[in-house]
Amino acid sequence: MAENLMEIKDLKRSFKLESGEQQILKGISLDLKRGDFTVIMGASGSGKSTLLYALSGMDRPTSGQILFGDTDITKLSTDEMALFRRKHCGFVFQQICLVDSLSVMDNILVSGLLVEKNRKKVYEKAAGLLNSVEIEEHTFKKLPSQISGGKAQRVGIVRALINDPEILFADEPTGALNSQTGAEVLDIFSKINQDGQSIIMVTHDLKSALRGNRILYLKDGLILDECRLPKYEGENEERRKTLSGFLEKMGW
Amino acid sequence: MKGFYIAAAYFRKSKFQVIIVALMITLAAFVMGLALGLATDYTDNFNRTHERLNAEHITIDFADIGNSGKDALTEKIEADDRITEYGISDVLIGNGSCPFGENGLLISSFLPMRFSDAEKLAVGRYEITGEGDEGDGFIPYIFSFYYKIGDEFTVSLDSGEFSFRIKGFYNNLTTGTVNCKTVVLLLNDETFDRFEAAGLRRGYHIGLQLASPGEAERLEPDMITELSDAAPGLVFAQSTNYVKLSKSRYISEKVFVGILFAAAFVVLTVLLSVIAFSLSNYVKENMHNFGVLKALGYESRNLMSPIIVAMLSLSLAAASVGCGLSYLLLPTINTILEEQSGIPYTIRFLLLPDAVTVGSIALLVFLTALLSMIKIRGIQPITAIKPMRKEARGILSLPLQRTKLELNFALGLKAIFSDIKKYLVFLLTACLITIMLCVAIFCSDNILQHSERIFRCIFGNTSDLMVRMNTADEDAATGWLKEQEEVELMFLMTQGSVCHMEGGKIDAACRDEEGFAQCGYLLLTGSFPSSETELSLNYVYAEKHGLKIGDSMTLNSNGKEETYTVSGLFQDASFGGRNLFLTREGYERLTELYSLSYMVNLKEGEDLEAFIDKIKSELPSVGVINYREYMNGMSSNYIRMLNAMIVVIIIISVLISVLVLSIIVNMILFNKRREHGILKSLGFVTSQIVFQTAVSFLPMALLGSVIGLLISRDGVCALFSYFVRDIGIASFGESVQTVSLVLCGLGFTLFTFAVTCILSAKVRKTVPHDLFNNE
User: Residue A20, SS3?
Assistant: First the structure.
């Protein structure tokens, strides 16, 4: 039995709009296991991104608990939440979100140096990670605008991994990429998950979802159902059929 | 209508910047309007008052020891076709002192005159500015800042102490202030008779109006000589002229206006650079939108003109408000300046200076806006809608793996290179603000904290006492003084008026060897006179008359002429640049010394008042004046003015700094909201981002301060000297102290850090998930 990574109890999130209060998450409860590649799926407006932000400590839920070990992160102050993200989380964004004015290497160091003060150590680790995702050394000094989207997203993944996070959150990481570079990025996700990295990813893409071993389906702010798959070891028809069947059942 | 939408979009998107720009325009108009108003109307007040009071061009006071001069004077004046109108008043004449200023003393010639006689005067009229029900006499308006109606006014004259109750105050151009050297006391008959009975000499106060007023300075000595010759019993006492008074009554106003103009220049320069930067940034940020509008068929002028017209309208409105607000401060400034000029000024609406202020600011804003937005002409629809690429910045990008700096410090410094223009605007501001602050420090250092420096400039020494004696008593009095253990040193310093044959009346002073050794006036070139044929000359007078070392000057006193060689040039502010020094022997070649003044310095810690009492009891025939009190009295209003100036400079500096920092920090936070969101998602806390933002300003604050301080180090001294050049000071005080400069630079840098920390604190509102909403 895998160790619990996060325990979510009756999580609610609502937003005040001009038209009144809109409840996005309506009481989600679930356990997330260490080493899982959890995929959150659902239609637009189902609350999957809102759930991801709440779990990663980027947004504060209206009520409920998110227990990370003994810590309820919903009770943390803004600065404590930042420290939580810094220490335990990595985040990969759909829009990549590298700092435009920093070079590729600096984008990674800016995160790495927050935790580890030894510059040389962080630099060597960043260089190693960049090499592992096939970013050549001559690219290190370039600005994000000077490299392709695929490369930029790989830099984003390295930045998310630089502090050895316990959980890697990914919000539609292939959403802004073409199919080939998207597949390359997903390969990286699969590889690091096989190495033990816990991943929680939001996607609406079947190919991306196939990489997970636990697929949660959200509808109207609640988890409608979930599907368990074996750990990804390459695409096969059975895996695809199981997931397609599950999604079809969910009305996707 | 489409133009309205473009202008409205600008105001909506840049509302904070527009508010700051409006505030800066208001501040610029406030300072400039004030400066222009004072420079034009305040000075013109002298001419208006001169006309209203039918004032004199030359006044001359004579003591009438023969008791038969008035008819002869009248006859002589009426025969002179250079004189158009005149008035002769019977007065009493005495030299002495009265309490003046804050714990100060005024040394002057005092002329008690019957109020009933003054009322009849057609030339040099007296205008009552305040009057009580009871009292014995009127004193000049300038005294109203230190005395109230009903107070006892006591004046110590050569023949004793005289007192009367103040009935009111008067305004008169030639006898009403400390610069006139003559204070008329308008007394009721009873008090006048009491003064006369107490032994004051009779005399005449003559006011002359000339056919050519501009000739007043040149004609003054001729008139003195010719009128002296008219009656043998007349002894010249004091004189002044229109040209000299029109300058001397507005010395502080000139300095104040100079500082205000300098401040207006700083505010305008910063304002225009902020507008240029803000509009350029707007064009850059909205290049895509402008490109789209061009694609829809808009021409460049359709896009530029609405914003330029909006800026023009904003400048007209804000500048008008600024000019209006300046009237709120005018009463305070007026009080300070009236204390120095002694001429009442009625505050009134000044259309021309205000129109010039509003017009020139609007024109400058219009031109700046036009030049800043001209880039719109170069925007092509196809290039505008392409994403902008940022270029790598090589070594300037400060790679994190190479720097040893703390992460947040390094990120702060890196921010400078990513948008250098914003920081260059602040660099300019820091430089100009530091220069302004250095002016304040210079005033504080040289005048407020070390008043002996300004005293030396104005009075030539910082002695404790002035002892006046008849020549016959000199040996006994000086012998006694030298024997006193309280006395550290004493020297001769006696002044009188002589006439330079080519240049008119000039004040001449003689000193002994010790007097020249102790002389605080700065010798600019050459030496003080060492023989009876040499003289040293005020450099202002020398420049005006083309005189240099080695030249000859012929002086005249009561008809006797002697020629001297110029041995040196000095600076001195006390005679408006018209004075010279002779040795005692040189002075006596020209005229006999009937009375003398010795300056006395006491040893450290000696009781000044006790020593004055000792002199009065031991040497009853000499007059003794507390010179410290005199210097305080003469300088107290200048010091108050300088205090006000320092406050104005500091307020303006703080306002400009805060406004410029507000606009830049706001722009940085807006432009970097995505970056800040990313940093927060990575685990940066608010305080780290605030620190990064604040640190990014430190290098420019420090560099701007250093540049400003290097310019100020000698520049402020030169600038201040320029303002006071007309009154005889070529080199004012000492340069700003290095310690003060360093503290100023560090203080400004810390202030910048504190303000940017406060301004950037709103980054706490940036939450990571906003980042996704903005995508």
Answer: strand
Which residues have CB under 8 Å from B602's CB, separation 6+? B464, B465, B486, B487, B488, B608, B611
Residue B429 within any structural domain of the chain: yes
* Beta-carbon separation of A85 and B769 below 8 A: no
Neighbour count for residue B560 (Cβ, 10 Å):
12
Report residues of chain B scoring pLDDT below 70: 1-2, 65-69, 177-180, 249, 251, 383-397, 452-460, 501, 503-504, 519-521, 573-576, 723-735, 769-775
Interchain contact, B414 vs A142, CB within 8 Å: no
Stated as kind and residue range, the H or E segment containing B268 is: helix B251-285
Q: How far apart are the first and last CA of chain A?
A: 30
Torsions phi, psi for B491 (to 5 deg): -150, 160
pLDDT tens digit string along B73-113?
888 888 888 999 999 999 999 888 888 877 777 888 899 99
Count how many residues are written for chain B. 775
Q: Do B471 and B406 have their domain in common? A: no
Contacts of B198 (CB under 8 A, 6+ apart): B159, B160, B162
Grouping H, G, I as helix, E, B as strand and the rest as coil, residue A77 is: coil
The answer to whether B42 touches B193, Cβ cutoff 8 Å, is no
Residue of B390, B682, B688, B692 to mutate when probing chain A, most A C-beta within 10 A: B682
> Is there a single domain that holds both residue B416 and residue B542?
no
Looking at the fold, whether B544 and B468 belong to one and the same domain comes out as yes
Contacts of A171 in chain B (CB under 8 A): 772
The alpha-carbon gap from B420 to the nearest alpha carbon of chain A, in Å, equals: 12
For B266-357, strand residue ranges (E) read none
Residue B334 inside a domain? The answer is no
Confidence at residue B394, expressed as pLDDT on a 0 to 100 scale: 45
A100 touches chain B (CB under 8 A): yes
* pLDDT tens, residue by residue, A207-239: 999 999 999 999 999 999 999 999 888 878 888
Residue B545 to residue B218: CA distance in whole angstroms: 12
pLDDT at B388: 55
The owner of tokens 């927060």 is: B680
Where is the domain boundary, B202, B231, B248? B248
A97 touches chain B (CB under 8 A): yes
Confidence (pLDDT) at B392: 45
Q: Tell me the one-letter amino acid at A197.
A: Q
Q: Which two tokens stand for residue B241?
A: 């002229």
Q: Among candidates A107, A202, A242, which has minimal Cα distance to B401? A: A107
Instruction: Give chain A's domains with CATH numbers.
Output: 36-60+75-250 (3.40.50.300)
Segment holding A202, helix H or strand E: strand A198-202
Query: Which ipTM value was assigned to this complex?
Result: 0.89
Q: Name which of B207, B206, B185 is nearest B62 in CA terms.
A: B206
Give residues 666 to 705 of B whose Cβ lies within 8 Å of A: 674-675, 677-687
Q: Tokens for A233, please give them.
A: 């070891």
Question: B644 and B519, same structural domain?
Answer: no
Q: Output the pTM of the full model.
A: 0.78
Q: Which residue among A95, A98, A111 places its CB closest to the CB of B775?
A: A95
Give the domain range for residue B583. 456-634
Distance CA A40, CA A49 (A): 9
